[in-house]
């Protein structure tokens, strides 16, 4: 039996990692441009690790399969992922998935909260110690996508909120996140716009 599935962990991982190539604007008062880029990628990697535990969030069967009835399912979830140098990040929320195997169509909506608890990441360069992140208060994640005849359409997700950070070698601050990422499977194009740690982000990548 052939199945079509889409894993949503990848767009989350690519979104903030793309900041490394497209951030502009004035630096945070205490966080350099290079630190902001690397912190974004490392911080997002923690979320990607937590989300990866879901596996495919959606799958459909061919018409005539044993699950031919259209369904809507709502699932609550909570995932915790250890950070590289200590602490953890918790992602908790709800997913609503609709699927119609007869027409091989469906949709997914996800709303979640990410809370970092002393999530500690290596700073830029080993001599620069670590950066510890704590939700201030947290990050809101929202995602949605749809499928038509088994083919995935445009997927969009947003990440909004703020966290407090402190550097082991000295320095503290607050980082605000307001990002929108879009994945267009037909053209294999990712776009990322918004702000991260006081920087304007506008990135387009095609694989």
Molecular structure report:
Residues 1-29 and 55-64 have low confidence and may be disordered. The protein is 15% helix and 56% strand. It has three helices and 13 strands. The chain starts with a strand and ends with a strand. Helix 1 (9-17) packs antiparallel against helix 3. It has helices at residues 9-17, 19-22, 33-51, and strands at residues 3-6, 23-24, 58-61, 71-82, 88-100, 105-117, 119-122, 130-148, 151-152, 155-167, 172-184, 189-196, 199-206. The longest helix is centred in the first third of the chain and has 19 residues, at 33-51. Strands 2, 4, 5, 6, 7, 8, 9, 10, 11, 12 and 13 form an eleven-stranded antiparallel β-sheet that branches. A two-stranded antiparallel sheet has the order 1-3. With 207 residues, the protein is α+β, with helices and mostly antiparallel strands.
Question: What does the largest sheet look like?
Answer: 11 strands, antiparallel
Overall pLDDT level: 75
**Please, how many helices?**
3
The oligomeric state is: single chain
